[in-house]
Amino acid sequence: MIGRVSGRIAYKADDHVLIDVGGIGYVVYCSDRVIAGLGVPGEWAALFTDLMVREDLLQLFGFPTLVEKEWHRLLMSVQGVGAKASLAILGTLGAEGVSRAIALGDWNSIKAAKGIGPKTAQRVVNELKDKAPTVMAMGAGPVAAASAPGMSAPEPDAVIDAEPAPSAPAPAQGGAAQSEALSALTNLGYSPGEAAGAVARAAGDAPEADTAALIRAALKMLAPA
């Protein structure tokens, strides 16, 4: 399994990018949001990847973070959601937007993606809502940066990493759970003050709540009235 590729961008198309890894070109399909965020041909790029294997087809799909890759896998598990639909949802909302919409049961936001009807959007929310907080808690995990801070990009030789095996964080209690929930909310774009206040209120209502429960409760508090 190819879990990550990094190399020079050979060219970019509307729905895929060709990454030159040590002289071998890998075609990686991405959402329009990810394509727009990549550099120009000749620049270095790195993406976490998910390999789809079918009898007559092999396709790589690329994501800038493990959270987005995990959402792709989960979205694909929903009946009626294929790779194209998953990328449409992620391209419209981004990983953070998908996390927020599913955690809050906001199927209208899911429906805003091209080709996603109301029944499919509701099915996505209903089937994945219990998994959203755990995926959100992965938000402090790795990002597929083109190069490490303060370091130049590596030379263009083969960099194909084996499939990473991210596991959902184990439930934490007390201060650890609050810290993880706070990190997840700030990764979603909430200010530290907003996130801290919501997590504190959620923890006050349920002192023994784990990370997932705190995230879910805090998101409900932060949702627009």
UniProtKB/TrEMBL annotation:
UniProt biased composition (Low complexity): 162-178
BP GO terms, sorted: DNA recombination; DNA repair
MF-aspect GO terms: ATP binding; four-way junction DNA binding; four-way junction helicase activity
Gene Ontology cellular component terms for the protein in this record: cytoplasm; Holliday junction helicase complex; Holliday junction resolvase complex
SMART domains named among the record's database cross-references: HhH1
Function recorded in the entry: The RuvA-RuvB-RuvC complex processes Holliday junction (HJ) DNA during genetic recombination and DNA repair, while the RuvA-RuvB complex plays an important role in the rescue of blocked DNA replication forks via replication fork reversal (RFR). RuvA specifically binds to HJ cruciform DNA, conferring on it an open structure. The RuvB hexamer acts as an ATP-dependent pump, pulling dsDNA into and through the RuvAB complex. HJ branch migration allows RuvC to scan DNA until it finds its consensus sequence, where it cleaves and resolves the cruciform DNA.
Protein name: Holliday junction branch migration complex subunit RuvA
Source species: Roseivivax halodurans JCM 10272
